[in-house]
Structure formats: structure tokens, C-alpha cells
Amino acid sequence: MISRLALNVSLLVSFMTVGVAEAFLGPALAQLTSRWGVPLTEGGVLYTMLFSGSFMAVALTGKLLGRIGLRLALSVSALLLALGFVGVALAPGMAVAIAVTLLLGLGVGGLAVNLNLLTAALYPRTRSAALNLINVFFGAGALFAPLLVSTSSGTPGGLKTMLIGLGIVALFTSLGFALLPMAGLQTVDSPISSSPPLRTLLNDRYVLILIVTFFLYVGAEAGFGGWAYSFASIGAHLDVAGASLIVTAFWLSFTLGRLAAGLVARFVTARTLVVSGALLAAGGGALVVLFNFNPALLFIGAVLVGVGCAPIFPTSFALATLYRHDWAASVSSLGVLAGSLGGAILPFIQGQLLAYWGVAGGASFTVLVLLAIVGLQFGARRGDIVAAPNVGPVI
User: Fold this and answer.
1) Is residue 394 part of a domain?
2) What is the pLDDT of residues 219-270, one digit of tens each?
3) Which candidate, 15, 92, 11, 110, places its Cα nearest to that of 53?
4) Structure pTM?
5) Low-confidence ranges of the chain (pLDDT < 70)
6) Euclidean distance between the first and final Cα of the chain, in Å?
7) Within its chain, how far is the Cα of 369 from the centroid?
8) What is the reported pLDDT for 123?
9) How far apart are CA 84 and CA 101, in angstroms?
10) What span, in angstroms and rounded, lies between the C-alpha atoms of 129 and 391?
């Protein structure tokens, strides 16, 4: 009982550190690029490196799970996250920062798959609700990221100290996954069964819908969350505190939206959650496009994007594990892999649109991506998913 509690604590803390890892770059980018003596726009490559590392990690995780099991995969991923945090803290220049951000991405990507698989193993009969609720802690980490950066920027060496502290936390979770007994969770200690051929997966229509959904969603979330600070400073000309508040509003609403989604997941279909969330977020993005010069409406837009985005990833992950139980690890890995690729590509494109066409151009990209997610969901047939017992309706 105590070991299971400790395992859950490690799980929740890891979700929070992954949230911080994905969200701290936006608020910290100006400070980091200033320290390294490069223009802010050049710092956008760090988003690409973060999600490129995540992409590579997920690609490797799909194969490694069949050899080393989930426990060791969790421990190694958390260790990479720790090294990435410390590396960014100590990086003397942009070249080293690119390399260590790639390392940070490897940790993020490995944990993105493995933490969700661990959640499904711990709560197999209520996985849809559990995945939404536990992913609240990812949102909490993303929420605290701009607050941590804002607080630490007021003290000499504050950002460096904060990142090293996060690295130490990630190191402790790595040790927890490696040392805690996991009796009764064979899927954690044992290698995952062999994957079906990639060609078989990619020939499946619904698997492709899931893959593209992950690609678009992670790109939309990472892009809006990463550039929200710039939307606020460029569009509404807010100062550091005001722009940080917009970022905080996005991640706070994102966290609360995930909590709400976890509570209602047993009563509405998964497709309803995904479609309604994407439509709500697109509406919020439209507010940012039209009224980014108005701080109040910019704030409301950021809140709507956060609430709408909240259920899309965990609900899609639940769908990936429910579609074919024998394909669960493979389909979920491919989905997160596609999400990492989306996170590497789409925020970079969005940054270019922001540079050339201002906030309206950058925010319009978020709206279009979210509407594309809605279109994909209506391309799924009712027969594509069969509900597993005791998890609520799924389509």
C-alpha cells in the first residue's frame, strides 16, 4: 500500500515536471537569449529541439518497451529530463543550449508515453477519467512554469537555480521509478508484447486519424502556450508581469479544464470531448486574432484556448489504448510520436507567421489547426471504437 502511494506520488510529480519542461521556454526565452547574446527570434529553434528530442524519444520508446519494460523506461526518461534541466541552466551559449534542449526533449518524450501507460496500468477500469485527471498535474506544472520564471527572474542567478532544482526533483523521481516495488503490475516490470508491423498500423484508417490528431493538437498547444507571452507583449504591449499573466491564464484554465474533463469523462463520449474542446479553443483563438490589442479580450481568449485544449490529449490517448488492446502500446506511441513531430514543426511555423504578419497571423494558425482536428473527428466511423467495460462511452 505504501509503495503504491509512493509510486503515485512519483507519477504525479513527474507529470508536473514534464509540464514545466514544455512551458518554461516561452517565458524564459527572452532572458536566456539575452544571456547568450542572440536575438529572441533565434531562440525559437529551442522549441524545435525540444520537440525533436521528444519525437526521437517516443520513436525509441516504442521499441525499448519490448526489451526493457516500462519501469526502466520510466527511470531512464526521468533521468534524461533531469540532465536536460541542469544542462539548460548551465549552458554557456546557444550551441550548447540546442544540444541540452534536445536532451530535455528526450526526457519529455519518453515520459509522455510512459507516464500515460503507467496510469493506464494503475487504473485499467477507469482509464479515460484517470488519464484526464492525472494529466491535470501536467497542466499544473505548465501553469507554475511562468510563475517560477517570473519569480526567479528578480534574483541574480534565479533562473539557473530554478532549473537546477527541477533537475534534482526529476532525479528523485527517476530513482523512485527504479527502486519502488511494483508488485501486481506485470505491464510495468515486464516487456511489452511485440508490436504489430508499422505498415499494418498505418494502413488502419482510425489509427491514421488518431496519429494526425496528436500531430495537430500538440502543435496547437505548444504553439499557443509558447507564443502566448509574445502575443501579449507584441499585441497588447503588456509588460513582463502582464504578459506572464496571460501565459498563466492559459495554463491555469488548461489545468482546470482537464480537471473538469476528468469529472465528466464517464458521462459524455470521447469524440464529444475532443470536438467540443477543439471548437471552444478555436473560438478563443479567434478572439486573440481579432482583439489581441485589448488586454481583457486577450485574457479571455487565452482562457478559452486553455479550457478547450485541456481534454484533447488525454482523451485521444484513452482512445488509442481502447481501439485495439493488443495494439495499445504501439498506437499510443505512434500518437505521441506524431505529437512530438507536431510540436517540433508547427510552433516554428507559427513563429514565422508571427514575425511576418503579427499576432493576428500567429493566432490564426492556432485556429486553423484546431478546426482541422474537428474535421478529423467527423471522419471517424462509429464502428471504429468499441467501448471497454467500465470506462464510459468512447464515441
Assistant:
1) no
2) 999 889 888 888 998 988 888 788 888 888 998 898 888 888 878 877 887 7
3) 110
4) 0.71
5) 1-3, 41, 62, 66, 125, 127-128, 154-156, 181-195, 325-326, 328-329, 381-395
6) 35
7) 16
8) 78
9) 6
10) 8
Q: Does the residue 391 lie in any domain?
A: no
SS3 at position 244 = helix
Look up the CATH number of the domain holding residue 11.
1.20.1250.20
Q: If phi over 0 gives left and psi between -120 and 50 gives alpha, with beta otherwise, what is residue 5?
A: alpha
- Whose CA is closest to 225, among 139, 283, 106, 158? 139
Helix, strand and coil percent figures for the chain, each rounded to 5 = 85, 0, 15
State the SS3 of 212-238. HHHHHHHHHHHHHHHHHHHHHHHHCCC
369-395: burial string, b at 16+ Cβ within 10 Å, e else: bbbbbbebbeebeeebbeebeebbebb
- Which domain does 58 fall in, by range? 2-384
User: Inter-axis angle of helices 127-134 and 240-264, to 10 degrees?
Assistant: 160
Which DSSP letter does residue 197 get?
P
20 to 169, 254, 301: CA distances (angstroms): 12, 13, 22
Distance, CA of 39 to chain centre: 26
**pLDDT score for 338:** 87
Q: Contact 298/246 with Cβ under 8 angstroms?
A: yes
Task: Quote the pLDDT of residue 391.
Answer: 40
Q: What is the DSSP string of 311-358?
A: THHHHHHHHHHHH-GGGHHHHHHHHHHHHHHHHHHHHHHHHHHHHHHH
| Rg (the chain; Cα; Å) | 20
How many domains is the chain built from? 1
The three cell numbers locating residue 111: 515520459
pLDDT at 306: 94
Residue 393: the pLDDT is 37
- Contact (Cβ atoms closer than 8 angstroms) between residue 367 and residue 280: no
pLDDT confidence of residue 287: 93
Domain membership of residue 270 (yes or no) is yes
Asked if residues 313 and 217 have their Cβ atoms less than 8 Å apart, the reply is yes
| Predicted pLDDT at 388 | 37
Structural domain includes residue 390: no
